[in-house]
Design a protein that fits this description.
CATH class: Alpha Beta
Cofactor: Mn(2+); Zn(2+); Co(2+); Fe(2+)
Distance between the termini: 7 Å
Oligomer: single chain
Catalytic activity: D-ribulose 5-phosphate = D-xylulose 5-phosphate
EC number: 5.1.3.1
Bound molecules: D-xylitol-5-phosphate, zinc ion
CATH architecture: Alpha-Beta Barrel
Number of strands: 8
Largest sheet: 8 strands, parallel
Structural class: alpha/beta
Radius of gyration: 16 Å
Strand order of the largest sheet: 1-8-7-6-5-4-3-2
CATH topology: TIM Barrel
Keywords: Isomerase, Metal-binding
Protein name: ribulose-phosphate 3-epimerase
Number of helices: 8
Length: 221
């Protein structure tokens, strides 16, 4: 069975002073826009507060996939769904009550994502599968763009794919995804690919998205 492949560019390493222009360069080629929210507590970096993020979400011409790397995730995640994100991913390590937060996201009408840092096993969360619309397997330690893809995470991607089975749950990888690593992730079972520096460092970001997509499709068939 061939999986539908989605490419979700991260604007973390885009030119944030010209964000509208940067988003316009990639929106036609992208499935969703991946928005990294960092609070300088859960991760050692800061991106947008809720008000700045809301402006981006409201004006974005395509669906937004919010990746919340924040400590107070149970409180803030529903607000990201309310403001119009198509998908809201919380980190298991940051949440005090994973199930109730995933359910709150869904109740508002967004897809509920569960993110796992490299050191967190999928097996600890497999029993929550009925409350999850997407698993995010981090392929770097969250916090910064431009890091090296952790090949050793492919085993976890494979196990997650096996746990998902036939369910219509997306399996996202995030961190270091590029033309030299996307095949491996697709072959292991990922179907949603975040790419930050690979896209925004390319001369033609939208052509890069097309190339990444082609390569992933060829491995996922
Ligand atoms: C890292 C972020 C990623 C990052 C990806 O914590 O969650 O989304 O922007 O950037 P690249 O593709 O450059 O690793
Ligand atoms: Zn991310």
């Amino acid at each position: 069975m061939s999986r539908e492949i989605r490419i979700t560019p991260s604007i973390l390493n885009a030119d944030l002073a010209n964000l509208d222009k940067e988003i316009a360069r990639i929106s036609a080629a992208s499935d969703l826009l991946h928005l990294d929210i960092m609070d300088n507590i859960f991760v050692p970096n800061f991106t947008f507060d809720f008000s700045a993020a809301s402006e981006i979400i409201r004006s974005c011409p395509i669906d937004v996939d919010a990746h919340l790397m924040v400590a107070d995730v149970d409180k803030i995640a529903p607000a990201y769904a309310e403001v119009g994100c198509a998908s809201v991913t919380i980190h298991a390590e940051a949440s005090q009550n994973v199930v109730s937060t995933l359910r709150a996201i869904r109740r508002i009408g967004a897809r509920a994502g569960l993110g796992l840092k490299p050191g967190t096993t999928i097996e600890s969360y497999a029993d929550l599968i009925d409350d999850v619309d997407m698993f995010l397997i981090m392929t770097v330690e969250p916090g910064f763009g431009g890091q090296k893809f952790m090949h050793e995470m492919m085993e976890k991607v494979r196990r997650t794919r096996a746990i998902i089975g036939d369910r219509p749950i997306w399996l996202q990888v995030d961190g270091g995804v590029s033309m030299s690593t996307i095949s491996e992730a697709a072959e292991a079972g990922a179907d949603v690919f975040v790419a930050g520096s690979a896209v925004f460092n390319a001369d033609d970001p939208s052509a890069m998205i097309d190339s990444l997509r082609k390569l992933a499709i060829s491995m996922a068939d």
